[in-house]
Structure formats: C-alpha cells, structure tokens
Design a protein that fits this description.
The structure is a single chain. The protein is of the alpha/beta class. It contains 23 helices and 14 strands. The chain is rod-shaped and about 190 Å long.
Length: 731
Amino acid sequence: MIKQIEINDIASYKELAFLECKKINFIYGGNGTGKSTISNLLNEYPNSTFNFKINCDKKVNEKILVFDKNFVKSNFLKSNEIKGIFTLGEANVEIQKRIEELSKEKEFHNSKMESFLFSEAEIENNMEKEEQKIIKIAWEYYKKWSSNFQIFFKGARKSKSDYFFNFFNSNYVKYKDMNSKISDFLLLKKEYQKFYIDNFIVEKISKIQLIKKIDLSESESAVLFEKVEGNKNCKISRTIDNLNNSEWVKEGITFLEKTKECCPFCQQNINSDLLKEIANYFDEKYDNKIIFINNLFKKYNDDSINILKEFEIAIKLEKEFFGTTEVLALESKIRNGFFNNLNKFEKKLRFPSNSIILTNLNNFIEEYNNKIVSINEKIEENNAKIENLEEYMEDIKSSFFILFFKEQDSFIKEWEQQKIRDEKGKKNLIEKKEKLNSKIKEIEEEIKSLENKITSIVPVIEKINSNLDTFNFKNFFIKENSEKRGTLKIVRMDGTDVNDTLSEGEFNFIAFLYYYFLVYGSQEKRGINVPKIIVIDDPISSLDNNILFVVSILVNDILQNCIKNKKEIKQVFIFTHNLYFYKEVISIVNILKYKDVSYSVIKKQSGISKIYTTENNSIFSSYEMLWNELRQENISSMTAMNIMRRIIEHYFKIIGNYNIRNEIIDKFEGEEKLALNSFFKFMNDGSHSITDDFEWVSDDLTLENSLKLFEKVFELTKQKSHYDMMTRNWK
C-alpha cells in the first residue's frame, strides 16, 4: 500500500509536494489544478523518469489500475475492437471454490512474505546503523593517531566511509593476527621519528669493551701498606728512626750531590764516615722497593686513563638507547676513585714510610660492565636494524598498526560478531523467502490452470448489458466481436456499429462501466485475482446527474470492497472536481464509520500546485455551510445574494465549467429571463460594486423571488437533484 507520494518540479508542481495516503484517499481540486498529473504518474509507475517517488512500507506489488482520459482513449479508440474482460465463470462451483481457497492461501503466504521482508529490512537497517557506528569510531581513532604517524595514513584522508571500507579494512585484515615487535609506544614513536621523519643516517657501531678489574696482588698491596725504611743494621738508623725523618734525609742526599761534603741544611762539613753510614742506610733493597712502587703507580695511572676513555662513547650510547645517565654517574665515581688512589700513590712515593690502602673500585667497574652488556645488546640490535633497514622500517609500521587496531579491537570484534549474527539471520530469512516464493509460484500456477478452465469474457458482456438496461441506456449494447476473438464491440440495437455516434454521457458511462468490471477481472486470462490499487480520475466530466448518480453507485461498490478487504482491492484514490460526486462517494465511509481515510485538496496559486491533506473532510463542510447560512431566518437580501453567488460560482463555474450568464440565462424566457439577468447582475454588483443601470428594479427582486430564481437555475441545468439534496433539511 502506498503511504506517501512525493512530487517535485513536474508540470505545475514547481515546488516539492507530498500527498499523504491511507487506504481510502479522496483528492478534490478544480480543473487544471494538477490532479491528472498525479494520476498519470501513478499510471506510468514505476517507469516514470520524473521527480516522482512513492513511499511505502515495502515494494508496491499491487497492480495500479487508473481510470482517466488516457484509459478511455487507449481502450475505446475503436468501438468495435475493445479488449474483452476475463472473469471467472460461476457455473463450476467447485473450481471457483478452489480458486478462492488458493487465493486466500496465497494471500496468507504473501502476508508471511511481507513479514519476512519487514524483518529483512529491520536487519538491514540494524546492519546499517552498526556499520555507521563502527565507521564513526574508526574515524575518531584515525583523528587521534594520524597526526603523530601521518606517513602511515597516506591516502586515507577521504570520506569516513571510504576510509573505513578501503584503508581501514585492508590494513586490519593484514595486521590483525600479527604480533608487535615494538610494544612500547614511546619507543615506537621515537623509532618512527628517527627512521621516517628525520631520515636518520645510521652506521654500524662497534661494541664497547668491558673494563678489566684493577686487582693488586697481595705482594703489591703489602708493599704499599709496608713502611719502607732504610737498613736497620746501620748505626745512623737509630737516630733517623728516632727523628722519624728518613724522607728528609733522603731528600737531603739529592742536594748533597751539589754541595759535596757540606750539609745542605746546616752547612756543616760531613765526614766520609757519616756519608758512608747514610749510604748504607738507603741500600739497594730500599731503592728496589721505591722503584717497584713507582712502576706500580705508573701502571695504575695508565690503566685509569685508558678506562676513563671508554666512558665517553658508553655515556653517549646509554642516553640514546635508554635515555638514562647511570654510566655518567659511574664514570664520576670511578674517576674520583682513580684520583684518590693516585694521590695515595704520590704520597707513598714521597713518604715511603707511610702505609696506604687503595680504595677498591671493582664494584663500580662490575656495575659499569653490566651496563655495558645491556648497551652492547642494543648495539647488536641497532646493527641488525641497519643490516636489514627496510625490514626494520616495515617492523615499525606493522608494530604501529598492531597497536592501533588493538586499541579498537573490542569495538571491531563487537561489530564483527553482530554482523555475523545479522548475516546469519538474513541468510535464514532469504532461505525462508525462497521456499515461500516457490510455494507462492506453485499456487499461482494452479490458479492459472484453474482460471484457464473457467475464464471467459461472456459473463462481463452479460453484466455490462444488464447494467446498461438497468440504468436505462436502451440505444446500444456490448457484444463479442466475431471477427477478432477475445474483443468486444459496441453496437446499436439493430446490430450496427455505433462508431462515433454515442453522446458524451453515453460514451463516458460505457467507458467507466468497462473500467468497473475490469477492476474485478483482467484483460488477460490470468491475473484476475491479483491485488490492485484503484485510481479514478474525474469520471464525471459533464453535469448529467443520472450518469453521476450511477457512477457514484459503482465507485461506492469499489470503495466498500476495499474497506471490507474483498476482491483484492487494496487501496483506492478518487480524484474529482465535482462537488456532488464528491459528496456521494464519501458517504460510504461515513456510513461504515471507516477511519483509514485521507482527504486532500489541490490548489493552484500563482501557477504552482500545492497539496493540503487532512484526516477530516473539510471540502464539503465549507460548501454545506453556505447552504446552511442561506436557510437562516432573518437573513438580509444582500447577504443571501452574496451566498447564492458563491454557491453558483463554486458549483457551476468551478465544478461544471459553465458560463453562468450566457448558458443559464438562455434557458429562461420572458420575464423570468429578465428577472434572472437582473438577479445575476445584482449578485455581481451587490457583492462587488454599486450600479445604477438595473434592467429590473432591485426593490422587486425580493428575497423570496431570488430564492425561487436560485432554485430555477438548478432545475433548468438538470441539477435539481443536487438542489434537493442540499435543501432536504430546510423547513
């Protein structure tokens, strides 16, 4: 069933317009307002190429059957070659009953199919919502990450949908099952900056050598701890020991070489025996110990210098690889330790009799070596990166995307799981639809087979002729065309073809009667019981009340079957400009108190058609109000004349396209004609301007006379039935 018709920029619909639809739809509008534009588009649907759209719960499966001028032309172009209408013969009750059963079964399955289609649409809508949700989430993460890793998102900055379905999906499939080689985000960002942004020129780095521990032997440590003194067996040794000035004496000997036998300190002469005693005190053994300590000092000093040289590269690499300064702190401790120990050596050499113990730096050296092991591991990694640079850069990229998708993993998996459930449900529905569709086709084939056995155009011929007779059309009838099987022709009572001799009323009536039976039949042998949407566009073109009354009865029959869900009539659209016909056809919905009805008015303003839809009938109520006002007691002549003018203009000009003054006045004679002319002139002048050229004295045109002339207008135009209908409640 059609829920809404959308029309834009077609004919007089210059602006977007909507026709809100229900099961029964009454559309009222004057000639040329745009009614036929809609009925024409419905007739062409779904092949219309205009800006015309039908909105409904599902696809329009019903056959749209339109009665309009085009229908009359296409079916009655030749009065002796009209397509026959096939209906089911009523003689074979069993077959007819079986067809009805099958039709109900088909309708049940179609209803089931509709529920499947509805469920499928719900699943598809849900899939669309979930898809848009994940697209939005993916886009938010793209904005979050892309600024820091712009190179990795090259080619991704398009629409959200394009990003998700192309860039996102392809990379997700590629990286989702991989393990990240760089799991630390800060390191990953650093490596990206180094290798992708800074174009870092890299070279292989040599490993740093470990520092050997500086371990003195026991004898070496003993010498440093020992008080190195002269020969105790010399006489002078006691004096030197008592004075504790062996270093002073030793230093004095160096000066004695210059002063010969004169003491460099007291300037006294020194005899040979004293010199000999002093020489014996600082014997070879003493000198050897001093030489040993001095050599030990030089070696220690050289080792410390070499060790401290290694620190420079280690400090630099530690900062680069780890961002820490532990090696720098160790270097400071070891440097200070070397400095203190070397000072001790110098003191020992200057004062050999003093004992010294060197500070043990091995703990610091061991700690340093452990750090060097870690740095060397990084050096190996770095060298491996350089050796396989392209591979490593790909590792950076893959590690990024693994982390990137891992952060979204819960959302992606939730969407994928929901998608699997939806696709499974959709697949299940498709399978059910296929089975059900096969069942429906089987039923249709059986109906077709049964219809072929009993379908005929004869019953419609009989019914059309019966209706012609019932409604007093005695001058012509329908018969089967013997020259062309399956067609009808219209003939006079003597059997001759009518050709173009039918009056407008006769022609319109037979055309609509044909359409009426086509609603319940088909121009083909099959398709009699297909669901239909009925569209009737202005079936009354003249003001022949007899025809109007009969057509109203036929239309009401169609409406009643639609309301009661009979005869496969699923929806009805009635377009009309005839107010009397409009009142007649809406009566059935009032009698049955049916609510699924829409009432629309099409108005043309400044050349633009506009549609106004309501749930209540406002068309006839406003027209009725004019009649109700006219019967009020104590109404003034001026007010009454104005109301009568509006009624006549609306009914005859708008509905019947009558030229009131020329066509109606000519039907009167004598004084009545003169009075009526004055009546119309007064109505026009009384409502528009003041005049002084009355052909009839207005004082004599009393309210009573005016009302009589008003009634006479309807009588002479054969619209007395309408007048009677509108005045039946008058006292």
